[in-house]
Design a protein that fits this description.
With about 600 residues, this protein is α+β, with helices and mostly antiparallel strands. About 35% of the residues lie in helices and about 20% in strands. The strands form seven sheets. Strands 1, 2, 5, 6, 7, 8 and 20 form a seven-stranded mixed sheet that branches. The longest helix is centred in the middle third of the chain and has 21 residues. The chain is globular.
């Protein structure tokens, strides 16, 4: 009897143990880089159960473990989680003498501090479980969901997830899951679908003070001619551009990279070794040929060689998504047949990376001039075309190489990651798949959490009409206007400009079948007046004009928070049009498909 009881208990414990080794979650994010961690935070904040696994000891990927911690992208677009992270970093260093706390300063931080801040944010998010130092070993389809095996404390644990997010730097999960990748052949690059390239291994240097000698041993294969770029250059001025707090510098110059090398599984270790030696060679060059012996490797990462934990990869294989974002989607978003800006789930503020110029010298000048405008990133670029319920992010999104030049940066990726998280949460919450995405619901969720859909730098989130302007502009009724600010190009809304009839007419016809009849009857002039707008609102909503106009006048300042007086004879301002159209016509409620086409 005792032996039988012992056997029953053993069987019970065995099956209990098996059950405990299966984790069920709504959303599984693999990879805790800037985009992956933002995706996990947003999915959890959108009230779905989320698990984030990261094989390394820190969150943040490239910008923490990889040392890419001088961020100039998106400094004028503090969207959502990126804006939250930016504020927390600035608050951390606020009392440091000389730290630039201006609203659009380049963000500079020590990698360990960035990782710590991300961990503190994730620790406060309900519905989110984070597992660091956790690797995945298997990923496969399980009905409409996914079965993934991870290793926890040396044991294999199964994870069942409804939605899978590939937050890895190189699309590893998507590759194993069967996603197809695009070959890219242009006048700038020729990259096979399985190639990953342009590797830098970042180091953090510290100024140990005058008189200190921190010269390292001469690296294997050291060739001083590789660093001829620095001959005659003012090193102290250059160092200022890569300075971070506490007398440290981020060594991320193109002369420390192995540009043009193509990373594959069978040559990874070799290329990583070359990348480290190239950076060490640059350090040795600065210390010996240029006399900066006081600059030495800081132990920022806690690694044996004091180098970053992971390499900085500028390029990755890029998944074939529902849409592919091309340069014209950045430069000419309104004139293209597809209107991908209408499906935006993230914004980017473009700037120039000189390492790209050195990689592709013949074409770099054109790239510099051509890709500066801020832009929106479309929803379809993160959705795998042939595999359901899999979202990709980081450098594996469906874009061309010249678009990746900008979207690869951690600050842009964090903004994009929030859009990925909202999309994953939509599928899980509504128990649907990536075949049935609702663009406007996903965008509305992002706006609820302080995201941007359009990259307007002159309308901040403190503006009482921020949401109305974002929503109406996402339909194309009011278009962004390029504005040159010094050497940069910004996209402005220009709220005080008057509305042109010809600007809004095509989209009004597209959105409202009655507009054509109203237009032929009323025949508005070159400038669309406030009276014209109220007249169409009255016609569309079947509201008596004698009722509507007094109501709008009553609500003008206390409720609508509009400046000035509602004179029906003057041209309508863009702000007034956005606010009134958003409230009474609600164009944002019109359904659009993944290409931005209006679905009536």
């Amino acid at each position: 009897m005792t032996k039988r009881l012992f056997t029953l208990i053993a069987i019970f414990l065995f099956f209990t143990g098996v059950h405990a080794e299966t984790i069920k979650t709504d959303v599984l994010v693999i990879g805790g880089g800037s985009s992956g961690v933002a995706a996990a935070i947003q999915a959890a904040r959108s009230k779905v159960k989320t698990l984030l696994i990261e094989p390394g000891p820190w969150l943040g990927g490239t910008m923490t473990m990889g040392g890419m911690c001088v961020l100039d992208g998106n400094r004028n677009l503090p969207a959502g989680i990126w804006g939250e992270f930016r504020r927390k970093v600035t608050d951390y260093y606020r009392n440091r003498l000389g730290y630039d706390t201006s609203h659009n300063a380049v963000l500079r931080f020590e990698p360990s501090v960035g990782a710590s801040i991300l961990k503190k944010i994730t620790d406060t998010v309900k519905n989110l479980t984070v597992k660091l130092k956790t690797r995945w070993t298997l990923v496969k389809k399980d009905g409409t969901g996914w079965l993934v095996e991870i290793t926890v404390n040396g044991e294999i644990v199964k994870v069942e997830a409804k939605i899978l997010v590939d937050g890895t730097e190189t699309g590893e999960v998507a590759s194993k899951a069967g996603v197809k990748f695009a070959r890219e052949t242009t006048n700038v690059t020729d990259r096979a679908p399985d190639e990953i390239g342009d590797i830098t291994w970042i180091a953090i240097l510290k100024d140990f003070g005058r008189g200190e000698d921190k010269t390292i041993a001469k690296p294997d294969g050291y060739d001083p001619s590789l660093y001829d770029y620095f001959k005659g250059k003012d090193i102290k001025s250059i160092l200022k551009t890569i300075a971070i707090p506490n007398d440290k510098y981020v060594l991320n110059w193109p002369e420390g990279s192995i540009n043009g090398m193509r990373l594959k599984t069978d040559n990874k270790d070799e290329l990583y070794k070359k990348a480290k030696l190239r950076t060490l060679g640059l350090i040795y060059y600065l210390q010996t040929a240029r006399g900066f012996k006081n600059l030495g490797l800081d132990n920022e990462f806690g690694t044996a060689d004091r180098m970053a934990m992971i390499p900085y990869l500028k390029e990755s294989r890029r998944a074939i998504g529902l849409v592919r974002m091309v340069p014209d989607d950045m430069q000419k978003p309104y004139s293209r047949e597809s209107k991908l800006y209408r499906t935006s789930i993230g914004v980017g503020e473009n700037f120039y990376d000189n390492s790209f110029a050195l990689t592709y010298a013949a074409d770099a000048p054109d790239v510099t001039i051509q890709y500066r405008s801020p832009y929106s990133i479309p929803l379809g670029a993160i959705v795998a075309r042939d595999v359901d319920n899999l979202l990709v992010t980081e450098k594996a999104i469906s874009v061309t190489g010249l678009v990746n030049v900008s979207t690869m940066y951690p600050s842009v990726q964090m903004t994009l990651g929030q859009g990925v998280g909202a999309t994953a949460a939509f599928c899980a919450f509504f128990k649907t798949t990536t075949k049935h995405l609702n663009v406007r619901i996903i965008q509305g969720e992002l706006l609820d959490f302080k995201g941007y859909l359009l990259p307007f730098t002159d309308i901040t989130q403190k503006d009482p009409h921020f949401r109305a302007i974002q929503q109406v502009s996402a339909t194309g009724l009011l278009k962004g206007i390029e504005n040159i600010n010094g050497s940069a190009i910004e996209i402005h809304f220009q709220p005080n400009d008057s509305v042109s009839t010809e600007e809004i007419r095509p989209v009004m016809n597209e959105l409202y079948t009655r507009f054509f009849l109203w237009f032929n009857k009323e025949k508005p002039g070159e400038k669309f007046t406030l009276g014209n707008l109220l007249s169409f609102i009255s016609d569309y909503t079947l509201t008596d004009p004698q009722t509507l106009q007094p109501l709008v006048q009553k609500l003008w300042k206390p409720v609508l928070k509009l400046p000035g007086e509602p004179d029906v004879h003057r041209a309508c301002t863009r702000r007034e049009f956005a606010v009134l159209a958003n409230k009474y016509l609600n164009p944002f409620a019109k359904t659009v498909d993944i290409s931005g086409k209006v679905v009536n």
